[in-house]
Amino acid sequence: MNPYTGCEHGCRYCYAPNILRIKREDWGEYVRVKRNLPAVLARELKKKQPGLVGISSVTDPYQPIEEKLNITRYSLELLLKHKFPVSMITKSPLIVRDIDLLTRFEYNEVTLTITTLDEKLCKILEPKAPSPNTRLDALRKLSQEGLNTYAFVGPLYPTLNPEEIPEFIDRLSSTGVGTIMVDTLNLKPGIWKDVEAALVDHPDVRDVFYERLFTNKNYYPEIFREFESYCRKNNVKFIGVEV
User: Fold this and answer.
1) DSSP 178
2) Model pLDDT, residue 243
3) Burial class (CB within 10 angstroms; exposed 0-12, middle 13-18, buried 19+) of 195
């Protein structure tokens, strides 16, 4: 269930345009609101047997405009009323606003995407997304309320070095998450062009990206093994999405 189309975050590596078959050039420049979604959802829920509802697959359900329009919140209220479990993924701390609803679901999954702890690099590749630190704070608050929390490192930036993994895992696990999921940077058509353009003023970083994405085929498998090993030491479940 996607309450919005488009996304204000403007992440350079996003593959949603590929899935939706829309122009990458416009991605990050617009958000279209599905204003009638709660009305449509109310009708649909009367016909359906309860099953896990994923929110959202190709856009963030907590766009900045959600704070005013409450499309996601109204939808959650309906799903709660009809006893549908939910699985949510976002980059926005605005999700904390809805803790009062989320804690009432019989089953919930709440995932915050945190691709890097490097604030400067995050600003380059995720220009309008909330900072990593605000996401960590939100994840901590959600965990403290007893929600089933995940940290999604997707994509894991190929600038991360093996010796930096312990700090990364420590920061994530300190929020109380039960699971850490890690994904590679999926180079669907047009993505590398956008990433390379974003890094044009940072040639050293661009070269590291290029080498580890196109030349060093062992980078991600080795990093995933290190992630899994250190997650085990921290008693956190590890899920490697793609190697």
Assistant:
1) S
2) 56
3) buried
Question: What is the CATH topology of the domain spanning 4-240?
Answer: pyruvate-formate lyase- activating enzyme (3.80.30)
Q: Please give the average pLDDT of every successive group of 10 residues along the chain, which has 243 residues.
A: 95 92 87 96 95 94 97 98 98 98 97 97 97 98 98 97 96 97 95 97 98 96 96 95 70
Angle formed at CA 116 by CA 135 and CA 14, multiple of 5 degrees: 90
Adjacency order of strands within the sheet including 179-182:
53-55, 86-90, 108-113, 149-153, 179-182, 237-240
Q: Smallest Cα–Cα separation from 156: which of 205, 200, 110, 117?
A: 117
Residue spans per domain, the chain: 4-240
CA angle 56, 58, 62 (to 5 degrees): 50
